[in-house]
Amino acid sequence: MTQTRRPVLVGISLAVLLALGVGVAFVLGDELGIRSEPADVPSETLVAAPETPAVGPPAFTRISAPASARLDLAVSELDDAVAEADATDGAVTLDVSVGDGPADDESYSLEGTADALRIVAAGEAGAVRGVYDLAAAVRDRRSITEHLGETVDSRLDFRMADLGAVGVTVDEAEWAEGDDYSHNSKAFADVILAEAPYIDETALEASRIEFEEYVQHVLAEGYNAIAIPGFIEYLTFDRVGDGDDVYGADDTHVARALAMQEAFGPMWQYAHDLGLDVYFRTDMLMLTTPLEEYLEAEFGGLATEDPAFWDVYAAGLDELYAAMPYVDGVLIRIGEAGRVYDLPGWDYYSELAVTTVDAVRAMLTAFTGQAEAADREVIFRTWSVGVGAVGDMHTNADSYRAVLDGIESEQLIVSTKYTLGDFYSHLPLNDTLEIGEQRRIVEFQSRREFENFGAFPNDLGVLYQQALQRFIAANPRVEGIWTWTQDGGPWRAGPLSLELKAGFWQLPELNTELAVRLARDPDADPAAITADWARRWFSDDPATVDAIGRAMADSRTAITDGLYIGPFADRRVFAIGLEPPPMMWIFEWDIVTGDSAVLDVIYEVSRGRLDEAIEGGPRALAAVERMRAEIEATDAASWHDPALRDEFLATLDYQASTYAFLADYRTMFLKHAEWHDTHSGEAYEAWDAARLAYRASAAEHEAAYSGDPYHPAYNLTAAELGVDRAERDLPMAWAARITLLLLAAWLAYGIAAGYGRAKWPGARAARAMWVAATRPWRAVEVTRDLGRLDRALLVAVPAVFLAASRGIQTWFLAASHLIVTLGSWLVFAIAVLLLLRLARRPAWPVLAAIGGAAVLRIGLLLAVLTPTGPGGYWFEFWTDPLARSIYVTIAFAAFGWVIVAAGWALAVQLGARRALGALVAAVGAVLAVFGAFIATLGLESALTTWNDEMALLPWGLSRILGITVYLDIPADTAWVAAAAGVVLVVVGVLLALPWRHRSRAAAVA
């Protein structure tokens, strides 16, 4: 009867294991969620403006304007612009008339005649704007009478810039290293001291001069607001509780805050008084150690959903505006935070803690209420990186509404990037800017962080114009822009380019000028603005300006083809609950990635347009060559400064070098993926040729630009990890084939041993493994009286196959993977053996069952490694949901069968209960040992090491956000696993122990 039941039990066991495998495969596929869909990417057609002669300015023989700080500065800018012109043409007088209308009305009329101009404005802002517009026309070599007889107004009244590079020290060594991915600008790092008196007055004076120059610069360009990093550094929290609840009376945070107010207050007031609205820009939550301790004691933690929690920060805002009344509001980001944004060594830090709809609404309710009472404004950024329940409010209209519907304070401004994602190309325009009842501003970035930090020519005028025209037409609440003139991304991981200070900053300055001029007049001609920029910074010569215009008209082709793979970038891709950016193969900034997840998915999405994907590289190079030819053909003597011509040529040489190795790299990895997909020898040969080309072009790039702070070599560490593994794929495939043949031969040897060949050397061991793996209830029988050689083989053979298969799977390059995998098997086996020893039962039946079942599981792994090696294994995993699901289902069932076989063999010797206990204890031991091991190393550190060796996810992930943050893995996961393991060990041991009192009671009965 038992023999009749066993096949049924086996069938049930396999059915359950397969069902569980199906469940695992489904959950895995759902979690990965890899898919793509078409995207509505705006098309860009750039042209050069018609060649036009430069217009020399007339001499201003008289300028009459009411006396005020703002008008005096504007007149000074006009005087300087004329003085810096090579020559003047004619003479003119200027009268400025200011009415008694609203002071912030920017409209004005330009009246009079060509030699007697008159600016008539209702308020001071319009008069100031009129004078600045004349100065801009002079600098751009346009006629100052182009608006004569017209009323000039700005379509968008709010135009904010960031802090630029003010307070940032030009230290070439910091940029030359190229490995500092901190997002902290370190602005004023030499001004703010760790100890009293907290401020270095000499450094402060230098920063003050820089700041005033920058303020004058952005005012002249047309901006009227500025975002300044900082907030909590200025607070004493003396309005919370009794005044010393957060900081004690002697706390250095108080003294530093007061010193900060005194040192920097006059600078911010200078900007405010000259017409820039000043906003403090901060992450939420911003914390200090005493503040966090207070919040935890008062609210039991960072209780961001509790309205009372935000009263603490609202009190801080009350204090801020009382101490610094010239501050006009606060700008808040919740979507990014952490140490990568903080200044090391300072007790001011950010936490990603506002991640739910209720938390955001509680925060905004508190802050808008405070702003209404204080007559200030709150700018809330919708930007996020996919973390938490509000992680997609930047790109998802439903999430935006869930967060912001009903919060309609007129003191609230919502700020959103113009792209449906980050500042990349190949992205749709952000349709969330078309909804909502809140006041809206549009974010632009001049020094495009993901497009080599503005070091390559990159004319965004057409794109900016499309965005502004669409948003203004769709949403009457759009009222302004915020231009990141300098900020965004890691400051020192890319080219050294600091606005007004260092590097070829004039290139990204074009986009700063485009953004503000198009905000004022969305119908202006972007090509004409580009020509104005060329005349302002480079040359008055019409032919030279025309050549620069033609070069810049090619700049977007070079960017969009050279840094992106079009067939992939033009689709919206989704994975792991997130929407990866359209670049990805450069993840991020300067890290050329080598991970299989990204590169294989790029191939899969581009599969139908593979030739087009590859041809993008040569197209981009051709565009760069055309640009270089245009610039080189200009006469150096026609440039304001011939050194700028040299710099332009140098940056194009740098771009060409970068694009050369990127073109080879894209061909290489796409052809490698094609080989995995088709098993084509032609694809393999194409990959190998591209590999050799990449090695050569990458070496040339690194030799030319490594250590150059202004034109730094790209970071190829991750790419090299991928190439090293790709080079081993075919050898590993052959190793898998040979190992699989040996494994099959060993199993065949075991099967054959049942037919009268048991006396062959090792035959009994092979037979025992086969029988124990397929019929574990016979494990005791087939392992009885094994000889020394057979016992050694019973342990050695599965161990060798296990080590070999895992080594092959990891290209023999992932020590951490082998340590955890092989170590887990070892801990599991030792735990079982210890319990058997305590029970005084032989270990060989269980070892045969574990080893035999494991060999079957190893055979499955080797089989999927044989076509094209580990790279092919991962290619199928990332790109073929059906194949992945089938493999995961069978692999899980096969792994589960190892546990079942071990349990069955144990049950024959110990009984079902004790066998179950032994298995539970063994599994618990694995969790406890390796959970504690990984937790001790640090989960993020352990995952980073493993990922670096396996090259599965982007290498830059841990260097930027952190793998645990990106995948939303709780930081204490490893400790939780270890604790669960301890519990399982205890439960398992209790189950495995003999329960003698029950046996005795049964005997008495």
Which structural category do the helix and sheet elements fall into?
alpha/beta
Helical residues, percent: 55-70%
What is the number of strand segments? 17
Average pLDDT, to the nearest integer?
93
Point out poorly predicted stretches.
998-1005
Shape: elongated
N- and C-termini, Cα separation: 28 Å
Approximately what portion of the residues adopt beta-strand conformation?
Answer: 5-15%
What topology, given as strand order, has the largest sheet?
A: 7-8-9-11-13-14-15-16
The radius of gyration over CA amounts to: 34 Å
Indicate the multimeric state: single chain
Largest β-sheet summary: 8 strands, parallel, barrel
Number of helices: 34
Précis, in short:
With 1005 residues, the protein is α/β, with parallel strands linked by helices. The chain has 34 helices and 17 strands. Strands 7-8-9-11-13-14-15-16 form an eight-stranded parallel β-barrel, surrounded by four helices. Strands 2-3-5-4-6 form a five-stranded mixed beta sheet, covered by helices on one side. The protein has a two-stranded antiparallel sheet with strand order 1-17.
Question: What does this 3D model show about the protein?
Answer:
The strands form four sheets. The chain has an eight-stranded parallel barrel with strand order 7-8-9-11-13-14-15-16, surrounded by four helices. A five-stranded mixed β-sheet has the order 2-3-5-4-6, covered by helices on one side. It has 34 helices and 17 strands. It is an alpha/beta fold and 1005 residues long. α2 (69-83) links the parallel β2 (59-64) and β3 (91-98).
